[in-house]
Design a protein that fits this description.
alpha/beta; 5-stranded parallel β-sheet; 4-stranded antiparallel β-sheet; 9 helices; 18% strand; globular
Length: 428
């Protein structure tokens, strides 16, 4: 099955709006970091009257000088610019738009919302539940003044921006199961998270668990068991790396297209989550996505399609390790720990993206209909901090950030860090 991850929305072009004027653009020759920040009071309401001097930002514990400070009011803007159309181009942006299906609107949309369905990772059960919930509630969660689009990470579904609710529902109905990157249980059964621990972080316990399970595959010595475990990990890691890279790359390109929209911009990711490798490439993909969202003044919200899930091993996985290989049950407990950590890590990237852009992460709930209503709401005010890291080398490592606000009881949501990617041509 050939996937088409590069068919993106053609975003509307318009005269520069106040939001676009407030967006700080990266300079290619300057190492700068953009940090969107949402601040809420003890009552949960967004605080909108903070000044530059109210903020402190720290890079690996070292305070940084804020070089630029912008207050972004994410309210609707219907002034100026070219009028939007009922439907904007979908799919391959080089294709001609069927003008018979478009009609100028008297008022430009106040909000542009993209619902991005991660059909590369959605299993059959989650896909069916999400599709049903979306059909019922997605239309009700957007306003008549909004323009919305339904897009999939595989590139097979792309409604284009529209106010036509029927077209959105039809696009949701076209979502289907993809098995190209689906995890296939084998012996040993190594999932992507465990493969990352084995190959990228050199975790001896993760390798030991897989090797002992591999002994059930046939008569083999310890060396052969470890070789089988590594082989399974390499296969799983390669497949997972490709699926994760496509999902993050497509999301980044959709964000860039959305950045040209003249109104409020929101991206809603609907996914069961996926693990991002601890490798430099994996962390760089996430960091680039957050940078793109900050540049484009896009809020990312995420809905965990798993609903209320359990991280317990199922009956088919229990008893795989016989008593002579695991007399004390320690390896089975380790397998359960790996499952638990893997499930948590799958949602971590969605939580991070929402936190980094001021969005909402809806998870651990079967109320997907209520979730759709919550994730479409963007914060009223976002503060954009820019700084150039002092004495920071582009060494290919993760830099943890912290943001403090001089306001009693304030609760801060901001990106947790950034990846200092090495300059082109520099070897790891």
């Amino acid at each position: 099955m050939a996937l088409c991850p590069h068919a993106f929305l053609a975003a509307p072009q318009s005269a520069q709006s106040p939001q676009q004027a407030d967006t700080v653009q990266f300079k290619s020759n300057v190492n700068v970091v953009l940090v969107p920040v949402v601040v809420r009071g003890a009552d949960g309401h967004v605080i909108e009257d903070l000044k530059k001097d109210d903020f402190q930002i720290f890079d690996r514990g070292k305070r940084q000088s804020i070089s630029h400070f912008t207050v972004q009011k994410r309210t609707g803007d219907t002034r100026g610019g070219r009028a939007a159309q009922d439907t904007l181009p979908a799919g391959n942006t080089n294709q001609a738009l069927d003008r018979t299906e478009t009609a100028p609107l008297k008022v430009r949309p106040e909000r542009y919302i993209i619902f991005l369905f991660d059909d590369l990772h959605l299993p059959a059960g989650d896909l069916a539940r999400v599709r049903n919930a979306a059909s019922r509630m997605m239309v009700e969660s957007i306003q008549p003044t909004d323009a919305a689009a339904v897009v999939s990470t595989s590139g097979e579904v792309n409604s284009g921006f529209t106010r036509n609710r029927t077209k959105l529902e039809d696009a949701v109905a076209k979502l289907r199961l993809h098995t190209l990157y689906e995890h296939v249980r084998d012996c040993p059964d190594v999932n992507y998270y465990q493969a990352d621990r084995i190959l990228n972080t050199g975790d001896p316990e993760a390798l030991s668990e897989a090797a002992d399970e591999a002994r059930e595959c046939g008569a083999m010595n310890r060396a052969m068991a470890e070789a089988a475990a590594r082989s399974a990990a390499e296969k799983e890691l390669a497949m997972g790396n490709q699926a994760g890279h496509i999902a993050l790359s497509v999301t980044r390109e959709v964000i860039r297209s959305l950045g040209a929209a003249p109104g409020q911009r929101t991206l809603v990711m609907i996914s069961p989550g996926f693990v991002v490798a601890s490798s430099a490439a994996g962390q760089a993909d996430v960091s680039k996505l957050m940078d793109a969202a900050a540049q484009a003044n896009v809020t990312i919200s995420a809905l965990d399609a798993r609903g209320l899930y359990t991280d317990m091993l199922d009956s088919s996985e229990h008893g795989k390790l016989p008593s002579d290989l695991d007399p004390g049950g320690g390896l089975m407990r380790l397998k359960e720990e790996i499952r638990h950590d893997s499930m948590a890590a799958a949602g971590a990237v969605m939580d991070e993206l929402a936190s980094a852009t001021g969005g909402t992460y809806f998870h651990n709930s079967n109320d997907l209909e209520g979730g759709f209503q919550r994730v479409t709401k963007a914060p009223e005010c976002v503060y954009l901090l820019e700084f150039s890291p002092e004495d920071a080398q582009r060494d290919g490592s993760f830099h943890r950030l912290s943001v403090n606000v001089n306001r009693k009881g304030a609760k801060v949501r901001a990106r947790q860090g950034y990846f200092a990617e090495k300059p082109a041509g520099v070897k790891n």
